[in-house]
Amino acid sequence: METVNSTLGDIIDGSYLDGRLIADLIGHMNQGDLTRAQCMSYVQILFGAGHSTTTDLIANVVYVLTGRAGDLDRMMDDETFAGQFLEEVLRTRPSFHRIRRVTTRDVSIGDVVIPAGSMVRLLLAAANRDPASLEDPETFDPDKKRRQHMAFGRGIHTCLGSTLPASRRRSRFRCARVM
Ligand code: HEM
After folding, report:
1. Is the CB of residue 168 less than 8 Å from the CB of residue 79?
2. pTM
């Protein structure tokens, strides 16, 4: 943790700038909008939130491709397909299977009332395979162009990195390098 903090400190102190988002945060710190501690905390969240999720996604893409070698060639040639493939991996194998919330008011789901102040677990992975909203949800099929999934959450806490699969070109080249 000491090494991580020291590296993050170097980033914040401008020893090197690692991308536009962090550069923006540092800009706000320099303007006095954020304290150094707040900036550090933000960068820690970004590293934490962005690391294991992306690692899992890459591992899942490689795993799925082991049984679908022909799709790699298609991904290399077709950006749209590469995006659809990533979305389908995220749908069927999301990095987060569940998230937690505390209800701020009574919530009714069907016949059940969940009282205010309850801790609830939302099963994103199950929602992604909901037969009520998707046809044939258990089948991995990137050609189906299924846009709806919950792999990045929903609402005000929607993932900051949710545009990741949209940057298909970069993803495609990253895949090519991995393979
Ligand atoms: C495949 C990659 C990723 C997946 C599947 C993923 C998934 C998620 C999910 C499900 C949430 C919602 C958590 C909740 O509602 O409790 C979330 C939030 C978040 N993600 Fe990601 N994430 C990914 C990549 C990234 C990356 C690369 C970054 C950083 C650039 C990032 C930054 C964040 C942040 C800051 C939040 C919190 C947003 C908030 O609470 O307002 N994520 N992510």
Report:
1. yes
2. 0.83
